[in-house]
Fold this protein.
Amino acid sequence: MARAITLGNGNLLVGMDYRGQVRDLYFPMVGQTNHVSGASGIFLHRIGVFVEEKMYWLDDPVWEITVGATGDSVIGGFLAISESLGISLQSRDAVHNENNIFLRNFTITNTSTQKRQIKIFFSQQFRIAESRRGDTAFYDPRVGAIIHYKGK
């Protein structure tokens, strides 16, 4: 299936759908092992916004989403706007050109007149080595990143 955005560096390729959700992550050989969808193609990394005691995933119809690349650069991303929620969510995404690192930067804007707490959620469904067993993730506060791995 075609992807709205593909970012890569020759070793790492990330494919995202028309809602900015990761559907493919190939590493260390592009086109071989897909560590997200695998052979089934049913898994993805969902993105959601929690506001006023309710979760709104990006596949909810309250969002109007535009995806694309930034000019002639290797930075992709999306802009999700919900007029009814009074929220916009913007993502800037890239794969580092020399290191095998997928980077995402999010900006949430409250367009409502009232002050409120808004949280972003990530549901990451990895299938590292196209297997469900032994996938591990942790937040490393030293680098401010979520680290995923399998094995040692």
